[in-house]
Amino acid sequence: MDARLLDILVCPICKANLEYRKAEAELVCKPCRLAFPIRDGIPIMLQDEARPFSAAEV
């Protein structure tokens, strides 16, 4: 994932900063508790494609 892209991407729902999780290939929004997938190097920033996660995963 390009570091410059990570600097400008925010959550499409709440506009919070995202955390990049390389091992899972996801961008995580902690306030929304959603993980947006990265497929073939492209972040999929659609709410319908996001995976909800529990507080234990934070």
TrEMBL record:
InterPro entries: Trm112-like
Pfam families: Trm112p
One CC-aspect GO term: cytosol
Family: Belongs to the UPF0434 family. In the C-terminal section; belongs to the UPF0434 family.
Protein name: UPF0434 protein ACCAA_80005
Organism whose genome encodes this protein: Candidatus Accumulibacter aalborgensis
Organism placement in taxonomy: Bacteria, Pseudomonadati, Pseudomonadota, Betaproteobacteria, Candidatus Accumulibacter
